[in-house]
Amino acid sequence: MSRDVWVYGTAVAAAAVVGVLLASGSGATPSAAGNALWDGMFGSPYSFGSALNTAAVLALIATGFTVAHRAGLVNVGAEGQLALGGIAATAVGVHLPDSVPPVVAVPVVLLAGFAAGALWAGIAAWLRVWRGTSEVITTLLLNFVGLGLVSLAVHETALLRQSVTSVETLPQSKPLAVGARLPLLGLAQSPATIAVVVALVALVIAAIVVRRTAVGVRLAAVGHSEAASARLGLPVTRLRVAALATAGGLAGVAGAGLVATVPFVLAENFTSGYGFAGLVVGLLARGSLLAVGGVALGFGLLTAGGINLQVAASVPASSVQIVQSVLILCVAAAVVFRQRRPRRAPKSEAVA
């Protein structure tokens, strides 16, 4: 624990120094930039609610990444899985009657997103366990296919594109049925939706399964040694397929949540890089599902603060992305340094 505090503390300090330098280079004083960032994160219920929605999407993706990593798999295809989840959720949501209540429509839309994401990840899982193809390569390449399918779906009226009403109309789907839209949490003046609750539930269930059940132990065994697990009689193929499909499914739920939130349509670039950001959250969490929640919330707050940083202090919002990148590099460098540092020999060996 003390080592982790040192690693993350040093990384945050280095990222903060870089942020101060970027703010100064943009002509803003560190105090003005800091106040703008703070107001963007906590200054109003709306900004904090937006941060919670972003954190929920990142947490779902990072939770799936952690589950797959437990089984020795690296899922870098969350962007494509998120895209397929959004397509499936839209296809279901736009055809539901408005009379269907949210208590029925919302779970149906989220389940459609989960199924589509899981099936999309299942392609990479099948190639991995039966053909030996690296899931890193297949999931990465499937991202481009998934994003291409989104573009196709919103450009073709035979698929999901709504009828063009004017030359200014952007390619997008029809709005989801009223009942299929994610309800708000009910916080005053906050856009936070029940996606936050869904992410928390998924995080808790995954933590229990990974840490407290036989399935979690088997996933860990497969992750440590596939050959040894097979010799012990564990269903290696089934466990790995299930782990990667779960990762894809949770990313699909995140995609469904995005299209079921304002403006309730499927549009090009709706993924906004959330898939890769969720991958980063999973990497920074280093296998800890508790850390997934904290890192996702931190990234969500930084994203919300970055918008206000540009508006109030005239500091480019991209500065926040640079700070996030520095944070990632510092954590990665500290971990690598700690792993490569030679261990001290026991005192008895030193005396000998």
Report on this structure:
By secondary structure, the protein is an all-alpha fold. Helix content is 72%, strand content 0%. It has helices spanning 2-25, 30-42, 45-70, 78-93, 102-131, 135-155, 195-212, 214-224, 226-231, 236-259, 274-285, 289-313, 318-340, 347-351.
Keywords, please?
352 residues; 14 helices; 72% helix
How are the SSEs ordered, and which strands pair?
Blueprint: H1 2-25, H2 30-42, H3 45-70, H4 78-93, H5 102-131, H6 135-155, H7 195-212, H8 214-224, H9 226-231, H10 236-259, H11 274-285, H12 289-313, H13 318-340, H14 347-351
Total number of β-strand segments?
0
Structural class: mainly alpha
Nearest-angstrom radius of gyration? 22 Å
Describe the largest sheet.
none
Give the SSE order as H and E letters. Answer: HHHHHHHHHHHHHH
Provide a short characterization of the protein structure.
By secondary structure, this protein is mainly alpha-helical. It has helices spanning 2-25, 30-42, 45-70, 78-93, 102-131, 135-155, 195-212, 214-224, 226-231, 236-259, 274-285, 289-313, 318-340, 347-351. It is globular, with a radius of gyration of 22 Å.
